[in-house]
Amino acid sequence: MTTQPTRKDLLQNTIQHVDIKKHDVRAIVNAMSKMAFSARDLARAADIYDRMLKDTDCGVVLCLAGSLISAGLKQIFVDLVRNKMVDAIVSTGANIVDQDFFEGLGYKHYIADERLKAGLDDSLLRDLHIDRIYDTLIDEDELRACDDTTKIIADALEPGAYSSRQFIREMGAYLAKHGKTKDSIVLAAYECDVPIFCPAFSDCSAGFGFVAHQHERLAAGRPMTTLDSAKDFYELTQLKIKNPTTGLFMIGGGVPKNFAQDIVVAADILGHDAPMHKYAVQITVADVRDGALSGSTLKEASSWGKVDTAWEQMVYSEATIALPLIAGYAYHQRGWEKREGKKWAKLLEETPVVTA
Known about the structure:
Blueprint lengths: L6 H4 L15 H7 L4 H18 L4 E6 L4 H14 L5 E4 L1 H12 L5 E2 L2 H4 L4 H6 L2 E4 L2 E4 H17 L3 E3 L1 H15 L6 H8 L3 E2 L7 H16 L4 E3 L1 H14 L3 E6 L2 H16 L7 E8 L13 H6 L3 E10 L2 H15 L10 H6 L7
Parallel strand pairs: 1-2, 1-9, 2-7, 6-8, 9-10, 10-11
Antiparallel strand pairs: 3-5, 4-5
Helix pairs in contact: 2-3, 3-15, 4-10, 4-15, 5-8, 8-11, 9-10, 12-13
C-alpha cells in the first residue's frame, strides 16, 4: 500500500525567482529580431520597452494579471521598481496580496511534482490545506495568516474610504516594519514612491481581511474602513493629466489592462486633451476572436482613442517565457540610467481628492 505524502513532503522545493540582472539576454533577443513570427514580435516589444525608458518624458505604467509572482517573476518586478523602469503599477489583487505581500511576510510558493499537475490528488491537497496553481503549491494556513494581516492593517486605519493605492501603501509601511525580506514589490514601491493600484482589490486575500474587518465593525456599530474604486480611477487619471506622455507594459490582460487604457478617455471626460498612450506592449496568451479585452489587440484599442499605433506590439506568449527576455533586454540596455523616477506616489499625496 502506497503511503500518502504529508504536508512536509509536498512543501519542500521552493519556487526560485529569476534574476534578470544575472543574465544578459541582448544577444538572443537581437538574434530573434532577424527571425519571424513570435520571435520577431518579442524582439520588437523589447525595443519598444527600451524606447519607453529612453524617452525621459514618458511615464511607464506596468500592468499585471495572471499568476506571476507565484510563478517566479517577482524579482523582475522588484528590479523594475528599484531601477526606475516603472512609475506606476496596476495589478490584480492576487499578485500584490496573495503572492507578493504573502512572500513579504516570509512565506513561500512551492514546486508541485508532475503527478500533482494533472489534478489527480487535488482532494488530498484540500485535506492537507494546500492550494494548487497548476504546478505550484501554497500553504492555505499561511494564506489565512496573510488574510488576517490585511485585517490588522484595516483595523489600524482611521475609518473612511480609501483607494487601493492608499491601502497598499499602508501594506508597504507594514512590511517596512515587520517584513521578512527586501525582495517585495509592495515594499519596493513603498520605498520608491511608485503607486500600486488594484481596481478589483477585494478579489484576493485583502477581500477576506476586509470582510472580517467590516463584519466586526458592523456588529459593534462602529465606523469602518472601505475601498473606493472610483478613487482609484480618479487618481490614475490624474497621473495621465499631469504626465501626458505615457507607455504601457502589460503582462496579461483583464481589469488592469482596461483600467490603465481607459485613463486616456477619463482625462478627456474631465476636459483635458490627453494624448493616447504613446507606447504599449502586451504579453498575452488570450485569443482575440472571443471579443474579450485580454486578447484584444492594441491596434483595436486605438479605435477607442486609447493607444497610439506607432509603437505598440502584442506578444503572444506565456509570461514566464517572454517577460525575462523583454525586461532583461531593457535592463541590460541601461536606458533607464538616464531617467528620473516620476515619484507618482508623492504627486498623488499632494493632489486633493474629495472623500466621503
